[in-house]
Design brief:
Blueprint (H helix, E strand, L loop, with lengths): L2 E2 L10 H7 L15 H21 L6 E4 L2 H11 L4 E5 L4 H7 L6 E3 L9 H7 L4 E5 L13 H11 L2 E5 L9 H7 L2 E5 L10 E5 L14 H4 L7 H16 L1 H23 L3 E3 L8 E6 L4 H9 L2 E2 L15 H5 L4 H4 L2 E5 L6 H17 L1
Parallel strand pairs: 1-11, 3-4, 3-5, 5-6, 6-7
Antiparallel strand pairs: 2-8, 7-8, 9-10, 10-12
């Protein structure tokens, strides 16, 4: 049996979403900026997709910007939004951390050993130059839910913009609520059973946002380039569906995770540590006493697809920056494994995964 437990890295394209995209991959191929009938048809589809996303998130259509994915959306927000320096958490996705390093006056807020960036940590890190705070809603490695609403209250008191990377949060968290107290969020299509190469940046009206890509008048003159019509349509339906099905998804994946972690704790005892507190239900990050790249390779050979952290850093030999930020040693930060459950995951697959993980631990 082969079991896919890496849904935090990417999810399979939902067949219903693919069906919605199909016309714009074949007959409806027009450029949405063309003035003839083909172009008008494509532009109408993009407009409908933007409206669908806005309705799902409780924002205005004019606040929705299409991107090529979460990484681009993160870069756009962190590099081009607001004025002054940025305060970013040390556990952010590498896209946010890398973009923040290009912004003058960036400072970094620490996380605690539970994987949380507290309001107090943000407040201690702010300075008179800070114009933007970036804290993700759900950490992409540990699944820890961050207190973005409380951080938002702090930002509002200080007159500072708040951006939240919601790429990993979209399947389990109420995005309409998050949008109600943030100034900007980023999303990615392939994390929500939508197409790869699609994403969205939501920026509230009145927030200063500079252009990211020169070359055209697309996205209100701020992101040049012909829009991916099929991708925009697919993203909009995927987002609508995961938010509509969120409660059922959370109930199912939480039960699977409890089964998975409970069985492993019973069999391996002190040989494992389940990392983080107040976690999204679909992510389980476990540090193994005998973990590391050899263990991951063995799991793969035995049919279990999982990861040592973020997929974008999978080829790096460096320890997880998230685990280091949580105060773990380098050895521990190299021994973590992320198992992430999806809407297609079954109890049979989880029980097989438990059995296989235990066998692989014993072989290392």
């Amino acid at each position: 049996m082969n079991v896919y437990l890496d849904n935090a890295a990417t999810t399979p394209l939902d067949p219903e979403v693919f069906e919605k995209m199909l016309p714009y991959l074949t007959g409806e191929f027009g450029n949405p900026d063309s003035l003839h009938a083909y172009g008008r048809s494509a532009a109408y589809a993009v407009g409908e997709a933007r409206d669908r996303i806005a309705q799902t998130l409780g924002v205005k259509p004019s606040e929705v910007y299409f991107t090529s994915g979460g990484t681009e959306a993160d870069n756009w927000a962190v590099r081009m939004m607001g004025e002054g320096g940025a305060c970013v958490s040390e556990i952010e996705h590498s896209a946010v951390l890398s973009a923040a390093s290009m912004r003058r006056g960036t400072v970094y807020a620490k996380a605690n050993r539970s994987g949380t960036v507290t309001v107090e940590s943000i407040e201690r890190t702010l300075n008179k130059d800070t114009g933007l705070v970036a804290v993700m809603a759900v950490n992409n490695e540990t699944g820890c839910i961050q207190p973005v609403e409380q951080i938002s209250s702090l930002c509002k008191r200080r007159g500072i913009l708040l951006f939240s990377d919601c790429v990993q949060a979209a399947v389990s968290q109420d995005l309409k609520r998050i949008c109600s107290f943030t100034d900007a969020i980023s999303l990615s299509g392939h994390k929500i059973y939508g197409p790869k190469g699609t994403g969205v940046l939501v920026v509230k009206k009145g927030v200063k946002l500079s252009a990211l890509i020169a070359g055209g008048e697309q996205e209100r003159g701020l992101r040049g380039g012909t829009l991916n019509v099929a991708g925009a349509v697919g993203f909009s339906y995927a987002l609508e569906k995961v938010q509509r099905e969120r409660a059922a998804f959370c109930e199912k994946t939480n039960a699977l995770r409890e089964l998975f972690e409970g069985e492993l704790k019973g069999a391996l005892g002190h040989g494992i540590v389940v990392d983080g507190e107040r976690r999204a239900p679909n992510v389980s990050h476990i540090t193994f006493e005998r973990g590391g790249s050899a263990f991951l390779n063995l799991l793969d050979l035995h049919g279990i697809a999982c990861s040592g952290g973020a997929a974008c850093s999978a080829h790096s030999a460096l320890p997880s920056h998230v685990m280091l930020a949580m105060g773990r040693s380098e050895a521990e930060a190299k021994s973590g494994v992320r198992f992430s459950f999806g809407k297609q995951t079954t109890e049979e697959e989880v029980r097989f995964a438990v059995k296989t993980v235990i066998e692989c631990v014993e072989k290392i």
